[in-house]
Design a protein that fits this description.
It is a single chain. It contains five helices and eleven strands; from the N terminus they run E-E-H-E-E-H-E-E-H-H-E-E-E-E-H-E. The chain has helices at residues 46-63, 89-96, 122-129, 136-146, 179-182, and strands at 13-21, 27-34, 68-76, 79-86, 109-112, 115-118, 147-155, 159-165, 167-171, 174-178, 189-194. A hairpin with a 2-residue loop joins strand 9 (167-171) and strand 10 (174-178).
Length: 195
């Protein structure tokens, strides 16, 4: 979700994001970075130090975003964790667009007339991982081997699926994306209607 993810392209990791939406479409977010499976590649601790510095920087940015509250971050051994509460999807969009270098805001989340749309920002991760002279296919293969990226979206109330690409429905309140299953070729899309 954040520019922080870009730090992780020098090593391998598992990234897990969880969005929980309440009935008013505010809610809670948390993200865990797990370098544990690849700790031997970070024998100097540089990746973990970079991750801690990145967490501190991202937490400072979040404090300035209206609608983002209860920000917490921590690290333990080879894991880093960040969480916050959001008042609505507009706050999530503001946060996503903090690191947007194009100068044009994008709507990664929208909620209108009972329809919630989520378009996770995987394109920025793909763009950040691509090295000069590398083809799109080579960059995608690098992502497939180095990063496992999981997104879980949960709700207080059951939701009706309108469109789902890349996500899997676990039950009427839970939807998941996993890059190891669905790959990095196409960003996932989730459109749900409140019941």
């Amino acid at each position: 979700m954040f520019g922080l993810i870009c730090l992780l392209f020098i090593s391998s990791c598992v990234i897990e994001e969880h969005y929980h939406f309440n009935k008013e479409m505010g809610g809670h977010y948390d993200m865990t970075f797990d370098l544990g499976r690849f700790a031997d590649r970070d024998s100097t601790g540089e990746v973990m130090k970079g991750l801690i510095d990145g967490l501190n920087e991202e937490s400072s940015k979040m404090e300035a975003v209206e609608g983002i509250t209860s920000i917490e971050s921590s690290t333990a051994e080879s894991k880093a964790f960040i969480s916050f509460d959001f008042s609505n999807v507009e706050a999530l969009n503001k946060l996503e667009n903090e690191d947007n270098e194009e100068g044009k805001e994008r709507a990664y989340f929208s909620y209108r007339k009972g329809l919630l749309s989520l378009n996770p920002n995987l394109e920025s991760i793909k763009k950040s991982s691509k090295k000069e002279g590398q083809s799109d296919e080579e960059a995608t293969e690098l992502l497939n081997t180095m990063i496992e990226y999981k997104i879980t979206v949960t709700f207080d109330e059951p939701m009706q699926t309108k469109k789902m690409e890349g996500f899997e429905q676990i039950d009427s309140k839970t939807f998941e994306y996993n890059s190891k299953v669905h790959g990095w070729d196409k960003s996932p899309i989730l459109k749900l209607k409140t019941q």
